[in-house]
Design goal:
It is built from 15 helices and no strands. With about 240 residues, it is an all-alpha fold. It has 2 domains: about 120 residues, Leucine-rich Repeat Variant; about 110 residues, Serine Threonine Protein Phosphatase 5, Tetratricopeptide repeat. α3 packs across α5 and α7 packs across α9.
Length: about 240
């Protein structure tokens, strides 16, 4: 079955698109996606395939997730997200465990962003959030991104404590992809509760990486954005 799925993916490959995606996802030496391989298959096609193959076993999904090809791994995650939404509690626990056991294969920002809130965030809803804090302190860039992106599930429910707590841990992170992710989640918090976002910014904006701050205040009025960027906003507002 795995061979059949991968043969289908190979048949959908577009070398020209694959070359573009390898540049777009920074797969060169020393870049965050170093060594990743792309078939050149667009996301809408993979989403359609995830519906066609949603009944595969967890074992097969895990084997697909171990593929050297980026699109194979994305397809596996799309299938896991789809299955998680339609599974029993015990089955969801299995998907969550599989996910965290395989974070080394969830190794680019689109793979994280497609799946973290729908599996990790969803599973931890109503449970201890300690696993998120452990991920936030990981040496792995991708596990740290999983930690902050998983909180999107809570943000959508009007719960912001984990987002703000993990954002605080990641304030001094060196990776631009973390700066963007944290800023994005702060912006999403502000869409629902501007007071909570501004309280956080008032306490931390002077020490935030510039990219993180820019993402967080992207939707603010121009004069307020300039105040944050110039450091003239009163602390603790």
């Amino acid at each position: 079955m795995l061979n059949a799925i991968q043969s289908q993916l190979a048949g959908l490959s577009n070398p020209e698109d694959g070359a573009f995606l390898q540049r777009y996802f920074k797969t060169g030496p020393g870049q965050y996606g170093e060594g990743d391989l792309f078939r050149g298959i667009r996301v809408p096609v993979l989403r359609k395939l995830s519906r066609a193959h949603q009944d595969i076993s967890l074992e097969l999904a895990e084997r697909l997730l171990h593929s050297a090809y980026h699109e194979d791994r994305l397809l596996a995650l799309l299938i896991l997200v789809r299955n998680y939404a339609n599974s029993s509690d015990s089955e969801r626990a299995g998907i969550y465990t599989l996910y965290l056991d395989n974070t080394r294969f969830i190794n680019n920002w689109d793979l994280v962003d497609t799946s973290a809130e729908h599996i990790v965030g969803a599973y931890l809803n109503g449970k201890s959030r300690e696993p998120l804090y452990q991920l936030a302190r990981s040496r792995s860039l991708w596990e740290r991104r999983i930690a902050i992106l998983a909180t999107f599930h809570f943000i959508k429910q009007g719960k912001f404590d984990e987002t703000l707590g993990i954002a605080e841990i990641l304030l001094t992170d060196k990776q631009d992809l973390i700066h963007k992710a944290v800023g994005w989640m702060l912006r999403e918090t502000g869409k629902r509760d501007m007071q909570r976002e501004e309280a956080f910014l008032g306490a931390h904006y002077r020490q935030m990486p510039r990219t993180m701050l820019r993402y967080a205040i992207e939707k603010f009025p121009k004069d307020k954005r300039q105040g944050y960027l110039k450091g003239t906003v009163p602390p603790g507002i």
